[in-house]
């Protein structure tokens, strides 16, 4: 669905997300410093020197840092709190953080989530995974899931030890959460929150925001969005996953086919596309043509 591949490669760069979010009228964590191919920029996306960047980070207080190219499952992400150039928890200097992150990264301000999100697991920013896809002339969404952290982890990714759970379009959690190894929990093992019937605020607005943002990337057929909900109940987009969306998460969390009533049609389309040369696939990629 995400062809040409060159577009997917570009849109996967997480330093582009704030630009799309601003255009769509969707909030996203404010960057303090970003680096794209080694070019450093401030929160206004103006180029700055390394010295300026180090000063901005070194005195920014609480922040969240992550690589922006080639990332997977929260690898390289971390929470920090800088004062006088040093992270107060680990002793990592701003210079060392830059070296750790490489040439493509963002250091962002921390966000404050809605109480319904925080209560699940306060140590992590718990996120909604909203997968939107374009099919037969319209944008649709797969069954939603929510990812929730465990223990002291600052990230909620399944591969990082987190759990995930189905959630309705109205924001009601399913009866049980799962890990990638199919461990099941009816309540959170750390906070004791019972999942069944627990409601997350702002979910309908997040679905709408995901579709608005997808409409700005018409080249892409399927995008896996990570959203959370702000203190005021408004959606906040965290990132867009384009080259690997983990459809298995949606299906495992909800126990139903990801594409619902369109599943048989899309499986037929996949078989048809696999028998075509890459240059022949573009005219069929959103299911517009009769496959015969």
Let me know the largest β-sheet.
Answer: 6 strands, antiparallel
Structural class: alpha+beta
Spatial order of strands in the largest sheet: 2-1-6-3-4-5
Query: What's the Cα radius of gyration?
Result: 20 Å
Mean pLDDT: 92
| Order of H and E elements | HHEEHEEEHEHEEEEEEHEEHHH
Q: In total, how many beta strands?
A: 14
Number of helices: 9
Principal-axes geometry comes out as globular
Cα(first) to Cα(last) distance is 19 Å
Q: Percent of residues in helical segments?
A: 10-25%
Which strand-content bin applies to the residues?
15-25%
Poorly predicted spans: none
What this model shows, in words?
The chain has 292 residues and is an alpha+beta fold. It has 9 helices and 14 strands. The chain has helices spanning 5-11, 17-24, 50-58, 94-101, 115-118, 203-214, 247-254, 263-274, 278-281; strands spanning 31-36, 39-41, 61-67, 78-83, 86-87, 105-109, 127-135, 138-141, 144-148, 163-167, 177-178, 184-185, 222-229, 235-241. The strands form 3 sheets. Strands 2-1-6-3-4-5 form a 6-stranded antiparallel sheet, covered by helices on one side. Strands 7, 8, 9, 10, 13 and 14 form a 6-stranded antiparallel sheet that branches. Strands 11-12 form a two-stranded antiparallel sheet. Strand 11 (177-178) and strand 12 form a beta hairpin. The longest helix is centred in the C-terminal third of the chain and has 12 residues, at 203-214. It is globular, with a radius of gyration of 20 Å.
